[in-house]
Amino acid sequence: MASTNFVDYVKTFCRSGAGGRGSAHLHRDKRTMKGGPDGGDGGRGGNVIVRGNRNYWTLIHLKYQRHVFAGDGGNGSEDRSTGADGEDVTIEVPLGTVARDAETGETICEITQDGESFILVKGGRGGLGNWNFRSATNQTPRFAQPGEPRVERTVILELKVLADVGLVGFPNAGKSTLLSVVSAAKPEIANYPFTTLVPNLGIVNYRDGRSFVMADIPGIIEGAHQGKGLGIRFLRHIERNSVLLFLVPADSQNIHQEYNILLNELKQYNPELLDKKRVLAISKSDCADKELMAEMECDLPDIPYVFISSVTGTGLTELKDILWKVLNE
Ligand SMILES: Nc1nc2c(ncn2[C@@H]2O[C@H](COP(=O)(O)OP(=O)(O)OP(=O)(O)O)[C@@H](O)[C@H]2O)c(=O)[nH]1
Ligand SMILES: [Mg+2]
Predict the structure, then answer these.
(1) Where do the structural domains in the chain lie, given as residue ranges?
(2) Digit-coded pLDDT (tens) for 242-295
(3) Domains 1-160 and 163-326 in one fold
(4) With a threshold of 0.85, does the pTM exceed it?
(5) What superfamily does domain 1-160 belong to in CATH?
(6) I need a surface site. Which of 135, 173, 176, 279 has the fewest CB within 10 A?
(7) 309 CB under 6 A from ligand 1?
(8) Which residues surround ligand 2, an ion (CB under 5 A)?
């Protein structure tokens, strides 16, 4: 996923189709001077629909499609012919997309399954033709209903990546490296902060053909919730993960303190993130010496932890075991 191709937020102006007008036609032909009402109904206006498609990973295909208009319904006509229904427009989105109303902020729907669809804006109903209004006391109704008007709505589509495990850590902690060694993903890795600018996903193969999905997101730093670094907008991608894997390098000054800073940033973003199960991985353990590690072990947060090294492979199997266990608890 090249950085510019990852789009996780789009605002789209949606407009449904108007319902067709009902017809107020009165039947006439060669032999009938004064036939009864035979005006047909108008067709329904087109809907704007969102549908989940597992072949999409981002919202990039919607980036430049700022307006979505569904078709209007056709008008009813003589001989009780109903107007054609307006054309529906379907917006295909990746799984994990949330649609919100831009004005009220209210969540309209959440698409998590392939093929799952939801009507964002409903098309107007078609008007009834005069044929429907005939009665004993009014045998020639010269009126019909108009169709319902178009409905407009600005919708925000937001992608929240669906993964089982989300990686949380400071920049340069080794998150991308870990993802690259436990999965087939090829994220960018470099020895400077903020290498990763967009989330990366990888499928981690576990024993017996089982697997889970891991998400690597850009690093967060103290004050990220105030906009420092890349900010915390990427944290929306770990909102859905069931387990958060904290990554703190073994050569950091105080692991517990760094962990608390990360935890606090998550809390500032959304306190519900703290309800998730947490695992701690102390990365780059090949850089620290044994004595130091034993010392560090005395002061670690009270969650499952493991020392790992993505370079030598130490602890990776153990880490997968812990993650799998926590995922299935
Ligand atoms: N010695 C050692 N170096 C590591 C290990 N894991 C990662 N590194 C190095 O640490 C540096 C940063 O690694 P990344 O994986 O890019 O770190 P990141 O957490 O993804 O960083 P950002 O994307 O900037 O947030 C790279 O130079 C890696 O080679 C490890 O287990 N041992
Ligand atoms: Mg990275």
Answers:
(1) 1-160, 163-326
(2) 899 999 998 888 899 999 999 999 999 999 999 999 999 999 988 887 787 788
(3) no
(4) no
(5) GTP1/OBG domain (2.70.210.12)
(6) 135
(7) yes
(8) 176, 195-196
